[in-house]
TrEMBL record:
<feature type="topological domain" description="Cytoplasmic">
    <location>
        <begin position="24"/>
        <end position="382"/>
    </location>
</feature>
<comment type="similarity">
    <text>Belongs to the LapB family.</text>
</comment>
<dbReference type="GO" id="GO:0008653">
    <property type="term" value="P:lipopolysaccharide metabolic process"/>
</dbReference>
<feature type="transmembrane region" description="Helical">
    <location>
        <begin position="6"/>
        <end position="25"/>
    </location>
</feature>
<dbReference type="Pfam" id="PF13432">
    <property type="entry name" value="TPR_16"/>
</dbReference>
<keyword id="KW-1003">Cell membrane</keyword>
<dbReference type="Pfam" id="PF18073">
    <property type="entry name" value="Zn_ribbon_LapB"/>
</dbReference>
<protein>
    <recommendedName>
        <fullName>Lipopolysaccharide assembly protein B</fullName>
    </recommendedName>
</protein>
<keyword id="KW-0472">Membrane</keyword>
<dbReference type="InterPro" id="IPR041166">
    <property type="entry name" value="Rubredoxin_2"/>
</dbReference>
<dbReference type="InterPro" id="IPR030865">
    <property type="entry name" value="LapB"/>
</dbReference>
<dbReference type="GO" id="GO:0046890">
    <property type="term" value="P:regulation of lipid biosynthetic process"/>
</dbReference>
<dbReference type="GO" id="GO:0005506">
    <property type="term" value="F:iron ion binding"/>
</dbReference>
<dbReference type="Pfam" id="PF14559">
    <property type="entry name" value="TPR_19"/>
</dbReference>
<feature type="binding site">
    <location>
        <position position="351"/>
    </location>
    <ligand>
        <name>Fe cation</name>
    </ligand>
</feature>
<dbReference type="InterPro" id="IPR019734">
    <property type="entry name" value="TPR_rpt"/>
</dbReference>
<keyword id="KW-0997">Cell inner membrane</keyword>
Amino acid sequence: MELDLTWILIGLPVAFGLGWLASRLDLRQLRINNRQAPRAYFKGLNYLLNEQQDQAIDAFIEAVQNDPDTSELHFALGNLFRRRGEYDRAVRVHEHLLSRGDLSTADRQRAQHGLALDFLKAGLLDRAEDALRKLEGTPFEGQARLARLAIYERSREWPEAAQVAALLERSGEASFSIRQAHYRCEQAREAYAKGDAAQALDILTRTVADTPEAPRPRILLGQLYLTQNLASQAYDCLAPLFSQTDASAPLAASTLVKAAQSARKTSEAAALLKAHYARQPSVDVLEALTSLETPDASSSARQHYLDHLQQHPSLIAATRWLSSAPADQAVPAAVQKALETASRPLARYRCAACGFEAKEHFWHCPGCQAWDSYPPRRVEEL
């Protein structure tokens, strides 16, 4: 019994000493880790400022390993991975953050936004859309809706795009009335391509009535009327563009002439085009005007081009003037061909946002996806 008591008396101080030593070792290790985490963090920040992203990522990973509960480091890593195009690693970082139960609401919303951006940059549009929907009612709601709108436009889901645009307009982001008119025009084009001209006509008629300031629905409706042998309606639909001196009127000049000729309103069309040209000179309007001249009035048509050249030097107009010369005054074919080749790049349309050029006018730039970025005037006239 004495022996047992002696061992107990000896063992208690020893156990206490070992416990104290272990606690000191833990505290020491904690201090070392705490010193290492800030050191790794500042090292990564220094690399980042010096645009050494590989070294910065290594430093941030080291810092996260030393302190896995630091959410800010996870956000920094996720952003770095996304900027480098390592979307799978960025997704894993943000999904890890979302799986944490101790994450605050603000950080959870921030991680959800980061995850949506990861999917968006990676081109995983379906997963990006689902992630963006979860941001409704958060501070990221406006950005998420704009991103969803871009997804729907890229995938040509026009009804869904119209719904999101309506939400954005109600929230006070901006006016989307012209954009909504474009969506309807796209739906009308799709309906007509499927052979449903009646639906296309209905969509465009309602769009012109709802958004009279939008030129595109009126131009498409005039073209559709003409294909349905409704020349008089086509002329009446397009005429307001020229009487109001709409900037997009030159895009409809040739259609107006065809409608006027079929509806026997050439004199009215000529007066309308002359008045528009006087206020806003354009090669397209000039060509439409000359096409209304009678065959025996070719000299008058040539005079129109000559008058235009005196006020507005234009290689396109000069080429048209030479091509309309009488047979006895015609320039050699080689010269005519050389001039046409030289003027062809000048007859293109150019996107004001990205500089993408095309032979035809686009309402939605195929290069940068911007709306109404193509001026309705050719490169030579800009």
